[in-house]
Structures are given as C-alpha cells and as structure tokens.
Structures
1.
Amino acid sequence: MPAQASISRRQLLKGSTGPAEFRPRPPGVNLVSLRDCTRCGDCVSACPEGVLGLSDDGVILLPVRGECTFCGTCAEVCEAPVFTTDFRLSHTFVISNACLVQAGITCMSCRDACPEEAISMQPRIGGPFLPILHQSACTGCGACVAPCPADAIHAVRKEPADA
Ligand code: SF4
Ligand code: SF4
Ligand code: SF4
C-alpha cells in the first residue's frame, strides 16, 4: 500500500515533527519477547552494521545509522529468549511532508537506496517526481532512512493487513 505520512494535530500539540514515538526493533524481536531483554548490549556490540542501540525498555533498531541486512548475528549472540524465529520486522516506514520534493526540490535518494525497489517516483505536473513508499514491498531494512537529506522517513508499526 503506498503511504505518505501527515503530521497529526496531537503530534503538533506535543511538539513532535513526525510519527516519532514508535521504536523499531531488530528482526525477531516483538514487544512480548522484548520483556526478556536484560540490556546487556551483546547484540549491540555484535551487529556488523552498527544499527542497534539500547533504549530504556531494551534493544532498539536505529535506521538512521544504516541498513539492517537480516544477517542474524544479533539473534545468535543473545543469551536471553529475546529473538524469536519470526525474522520479519514488525515495522515499516512512511515519508513525511518534510520530504524535499514537497518544497519543489528534486530528490530521489530514498528510491536509489532501497534494495527492494519499494519506493517509486510518481510523475507530477508542476513539480518534481513524488516518492511513494509501497509498504507491501518494504522489508523494514531502513536503507532509505540515512540517505534522506531531510530526515523525512520514519518507522511506524506495520498494520496486520500488511504483515
Ligand atoms: S540482523 Fe544483522 S544487521 Fe540486522 S540488527 Fe541484527 S546483527 Fe544488525
Ligand atoms: S525500509 Fe528498506 S525496503 Fe523499505 S523502503 Fe526503505 S530501503 Fe526500501
Ligand atoms: S530521500 Fe528524503 S527528501 Fe529525498 S525524495 Fe526521499 S523522502 Fe524525499
């Protein structure tokens, strides 16, 4: 499903600039298994892409640092039952109105970075092509996040219909 994010009134009132509070997790981690995370940091140190960190409730994926390659190293090194065998990510991404295209500036960095070709550029009359993120094709890897010069791409929970 193509998705463009808009900033809600609630987020504006809270001073948030995007669909922010949602915390993406690494492959295999869900909110139930996360309860067993001791915050030891073993997975954080072992991730070859450096895309893991620790939040107050456990391990977190940090797409702003790069792409998760689904290598499985984090699951291998964790000694607690935090990583399940369901390696699909429970999040996807949306593109907010901070996208440079919304200001009339041509940019295709996210489209070029996506290994799944999940972002297409929609032609428009009177403006640069618009990036459309197709959540049905998005794996949640996060490769598109760091290359975005406008910090316009944010993780959101994947709806059951898209899972
Ligand atoms: S699957 Fe690999 S790249 Fe992804 S978070 Fe785990 S260790 Fe890092
Ligand atoms: S998260 Fe990965 S698969 Fe999804 S749109 Fe971004 S680069 Fe493509
Ligand atoms: S990389 Fe960012 S600014 Fe560029 S088209 Fe994609 S969402 Fe817009």
Note: The domain at 33-77 is CATH 3.30.70.20 (Alpha-Beta Plaits).
2.
Amino acid sequence: MIKRFLKAIINALFPSDVTCICCDNELRYEEERKHCVCVKCQQEINYIGDKPQIIENAALGFSEFFTVYDYEGKIKNIVVGFKDGKKAYLAEYIAKMLYDVYSQKEIKADCVAYTPCSPQKTRQRGFDPMKLVAEKFAELSSLKITHCLERSNKGLDQTESADRYKNIKGLFYAAKDKKDTDIKGKTIILIDDVITTGATASECCKVLKQCGAGKIILLTLAQAASFERYKTSFIPRNENKNMAVDN
Ligand SMILES: [Zn+2]
C-alpha cells in the first residue's frame, strides 16, 4: 500500500515520458528537466550565457548582444532538429533558454522581434521557427511581439547550408500592416537561433530602424565561433556582397 502510494508520488513528480531533447533518453533529475537536456548531453553543451559580449562593430546595427551557447555538438542537433526535423515543440525549450539569459542579465526591452523565414520555407517546414520561439518568449517575458519583419522568397536554395554564400541585401523588408510596424522609439529585443557572421541580424536591424526602432538588442540561442571576428571589426567591403547568411 505504502509502496504503491510512493510509486504514485514519484510518477506524478517525474513522469516517465519526459525525454532529453538532444538524445531522447528519459530524464530523471530536476536539473535535467529544467531545460529537458540530460546530464550527459549537458556536458557536451558549452554554456556561454554568463560571458560578457562586447560589440564594437557599429555596422552590425545592434548595440547589445547576448547569447546562450556555443554553436557546436548537441546545440547543433537542437537547432537543426527544430528547424528541419519538424520538431516544432522545441520552440518552447529554446524560448525558455533565451528567457533564462534575458532575466539573469536583467535585459530591458519594450518588445520582441524575430528573424522570420520566407513564406515558401514556412510552407515547407509547416511553421516559422523563430516566430514560434518569439511567441513563447513573449509569453514568458510579458513583452509585446512585433511582426514587423518579413523575408522574401529570394535566395532560398543558397541559404540551405551555412557554407553557401549569398548576398542578403533586400532579403528582409517591413511588413505592410501598420500596426506591426508601430515600434517608434521602442527598445527591441531581436531573437534568432544562431549568429555566424551577423549579416542576417544586421539586415534585420536596418529594417527595424527604418520602422523607427530605438535601441536594438540581439539575443541568440547560439553563437558560431566565426562571429568572434565580426564583433570588433567592420566587415571588409569585398566580403560584404558575399556574406554568409545565418539561416
Ligand atoms: Zn541527452
């Protein structure tokens, strides 16, 4: 009787159907359940959310930058699984990871924007990944969400892999709906999954500024090692037209 009672309590506290978002193994500990990542996978993830990020490259368009993880190993699995593995449910966990840094760093913003994917890609995937994350993030942070950024269908095939290069100029534009672009003077927190060169973020910042945005803070789930050099220096002119797209 007592044994059955204890078992019921344990099951209620630790339902057995909760699994790691990286390896699908069952999660047993509270610490694992916080982000739905098992202890083993946590060891293979490099948390850099507590590191100060100094952006000296004004050309990027955002004045502050925060990120959560190094873009390698299991974090790649999460990002790729989420966007191209039809794992839309991961949006909730990604938003939670972003929100933890947002609250720990006491970031002050008025509303949330996101780097949208194109209508064609949205149809293929069945959802717009960062829009889903931004919606969850807005819920957690109680910030307003703005849908002022839109992405054209141009350059779709070239952005399939990070190795491909593509001119991203003009890929993003402001939404036609006036209520979506009502961000005059607002501090915007722009969220994205991975930053590699900063090209995508800086294009989005241009559009946000055209809509009248004040300060822009970038928050990404992960940072590729390649971004280190873009933090401090202006992007050389000859690279400018062939910049990698952070897809
Ligand atoms: Zn795992």
Note: The mean pLDDT is 85.
